[in-house]
């Protein structure tokens, strides 16, 4: 069934409120799949790209998702200290990041390249941002562990209000995605 599901996702078929309980999917892409309020209980995903997937209100009980991929477009590596705040320019072309290393770095969103402070347009670009950056912080709470930023053209995925009861959610690099799901407003509930 994975092949047909992949085609339905590519055709942008609305898959909301569907029953996909115990579905096994491997080695495919479900990019931008709309699985709002779907029942994915006991599903098994292995080596599946879920970039941009919408799981709002989905049921995810006892799932085993391994080698999950979430595409990243650009990796912004430049700060030596923790990134404390980020802000997007009004036109959406430049990202400013402020760090505990007491630096503000500007990034071209499209290319992912750092705009050097020696560049003639640096001061003009910096003037677009309200300083201090923490007043317009897109990160929310302080992220003392973050010193590399990732920019993606897709929203990573949506999962607001999903009911998650146990399960494994591990990306292709071996990282547990439970924390990311919790940041999206989900709670992992333990069975009674």
Describe this structure in words.
With 192 residues, the chain is mostly beta strands. It has helices at 2-10, 122-126, 178-183; strands spanning 24-29, 44-49, 53-54, 59-61, 64-68, 74-77, 83-88, 94-99, 104-108, 114-115, 148-151, 157-158, 163-165, 168-171, 187-189. It has two domains: 2-72 and 155-189, Pectate Lyase C-like; 74-151, no CATH class. Helix content is 10%, strand content 32%. The protein has a four-stranded parallel β-sheet with strand order 1-2-5-14. Strands 7-8-9-10 form a four-stranded antiparallel β-sheet. Strands 4-13-15 form a three-stranded parallel β-sheet. The longest helix is centred in the first third of the chain and has 9 residues, at 2-10. WD repeats lie at residues 76-117. Pfam families: Pentapeptide (PF00805), WD40 (PF00400).
Tell me briefly what this model is.
The protein has 192 residues and is mainly beta. The protein is 10% helix and 32% strand. The chain is elongated, with a radius of gyration of 19 Å.
- What is the tally of beta strands? 15
Distance between the termini: 33 Å
- From the 3D coordinates, which CATH architecture of the largest domain would you assign? 3 Solenoid
Question: Order of strands side by side in the largest beta sheet?
Answer: 1-2-5-14
Topology as a string of helices (H) and strands (E): HEEEEEEEEEEHEEEEHE
- Give helix % range: 10-25%
Structural class: mainly beta
- Overall, the morphology is elongated
Give me the Rg, rounded.
Answer: 19 Å
The pLDDT mean sits at 76
Q: What's the CATH class of the largest domain, please?
A: Mainly Beta
Helices, by number, come to: 3
**Proportion in β-strands:** 25-35%
In total, the number of domains comes to 2
Pfam families: Pentapeptide, WD40
WD repeats: 76-117
Keywords: WD repeat
InterPro entries: 5peptide_repeat, WD40_repeat_CS, WD40_rpt
């Amino acid at each position: 069934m994975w092949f047909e599901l992949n085609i339905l996702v590519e055709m942008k078929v609305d898959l909301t409120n569907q029953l996909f309980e115990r579905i096994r999917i491997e080695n495919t892409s479900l990019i931008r799949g709309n699985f709002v309020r779907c029942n994915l209980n006991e599903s098994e995903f292995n080596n599946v790209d879920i970039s941009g997937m919408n799981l709002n209100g989905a049921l995810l009980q006892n799932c085993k998702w391994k080698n999950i991929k979430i595409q990243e477009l650009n990796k912004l590596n430049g700060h030596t200290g923790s990134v404390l705040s980020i802000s997007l320019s009004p036109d959406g072309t430049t990202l400013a990041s402020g760090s505990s290393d007491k630096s503000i770095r500007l990034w071209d969103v499209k290319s992912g390249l750092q705009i050097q402070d020696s560049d003639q347009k640096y001061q003009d670009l910096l003037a677009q941002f309200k300083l201090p950056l923490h007043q317009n912080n897109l990160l929310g709470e302080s992220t003392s562990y973050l010193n590399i930023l990732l920019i993606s053209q897709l929203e990573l995925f949506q999962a607001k209000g999903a009911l998650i009861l146990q399960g494994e959610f591990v990306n292709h690099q071996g990282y547990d995605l439970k924390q990311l799901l919790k940041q999206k407003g989900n709670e992992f509930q333990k069975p009674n």
